[in-house]
Amino acid sequence: MNNKAICAIATPPGTSALGIIRVSGNNLQALCSKIFSKQLIDRNAVFLNINNDEEVLDSCVVIYYRAPRSYTGEDVIEIICHGNYIIMNSIIDLLCTLGVRHAEPGEFTKRAFFNNKIDLVQAEAISDLISASDKRAVRAAQNSLSGKFLVEINNIQSAIISTRAEVESIINFPEDEDIPDLSFTKIQNNIRETVALIKQLIKNSKEGLSLNHRRTYAVVGKPNSGKSSIINCLLREDASIVTNKEGTTRDSISYELNINNKIINIIDTAGMRETNDEIEQEGITRSAKSIINADKILYIVDNSKGLTDEDLKIIKKYNIEDYVLIFNKIDITNEAPKKTTKQPKEVYVSALDNNGIELIKDVIEDDFESNDITENLYLSRNRHIYNLEKTNEHLICCDNHISDASLDLLAEELRLSHLALSAILGQNPTEDLLTEIFTSFCIGK
Ligand code: GDP
After folding, report:
1. Pairing state of beta strands 262-268 and 253-259?
2. Which of 197-201, 373-377, 387-391 bottoms out in mean pLDDT, i.e. has the lowest?
3. Architecture in CATH for domain 216-365
């Protein structure tokens, strides 16, 4: 690992009241004395100026975490400055002229892993916690991060180790030729109990994994039905161009929407219609892709024209199955907003008057499970579930070898199950696995 000090802006792009810059490296004191107007004190917030020669770049609060009591296990400083990108970048530039380099995504957490501050499961949980898209997902990520998942894995590991020890001792020290049935029964019971524990953990992990999926809604319909206007109402800002000319929104644009703490992606698509215009056709092809990849379609109908044959043709042509019909422009027909529960659900709104938009939000919220119990759910990864299933496959094979009294084969299956379980914790991780995990992080974490 390249041990040069690293720095990154840890707050999201854009202007904000405050911005945070993180620096991690070995022995940062020399660097600090060059740029800060005051001496730092370990784990204390110090108000000071950042100087570049005679120039004061900003007045900041700086917290110094002396190694090894820091996030990365190295010296870490967190500079809390004004949230202006020009200021933040000038501080980053200053750090770089003094030998610090820009951090790669997840590099702070990678260093924490290599310095034994966290294990691989916790590293993954940190990334998941940052990107968790609803309250349940946040809790499940916290369960993984707090070590609850690890405790369960360690319990399973201890059970496998003690069974392995039992089998190895029979192999190495056979007291007599005939191994008592009692030993086999004990081993069999231990293995069956472990299999049951793993099955439960797989169930909780699979449920947790599904929480990690951010739902995507594609807004589809004929040109001019009001797709962009509806999205603008949902986002409460003029996020995409709204105009009278048909076929304006030619590309599929994705937005992030927060509905009562449930974060979804919403995609504005090009209006669907027969056209010879090449650019518009390309937009329609992209819309078709969005339809395939979306979890659900919000199909917008111009209520003043009603659900036409052309709409029905589009729904059929693009195999739109899971959808909600949104009848827009009820101001023209003088109708009140409402929603129906028959399938497909129908919602009547006016984007122009911002009337009934909350009913669209209700319909989206209906898609989220109401079950709030997350006590034992883990925001796990596919690789955790894969390795748990592998562990169990080997344990289940043990049963046959017990009935055949094939001790060597039994010992081998137990070893393989132990190996599969260890892979979850990242004992002997491959470079590819580490790259996959850490590059999914945002810069600054
Ligand atoms: P898109 O092509 O489906 O994205 O449609 P736009 O959102 O661009 O809207 C097309 C036209 O319909 C614009 O002139 C909008 O002002 C108008 N429009 C959108 N929503 C409503 C509505 O609820 N009522 C009325 N009367 N006009 C609307």
Report:
1. antiparallel
2. 373-377
3. 3-Layer(aba) Sandwich (3.40)
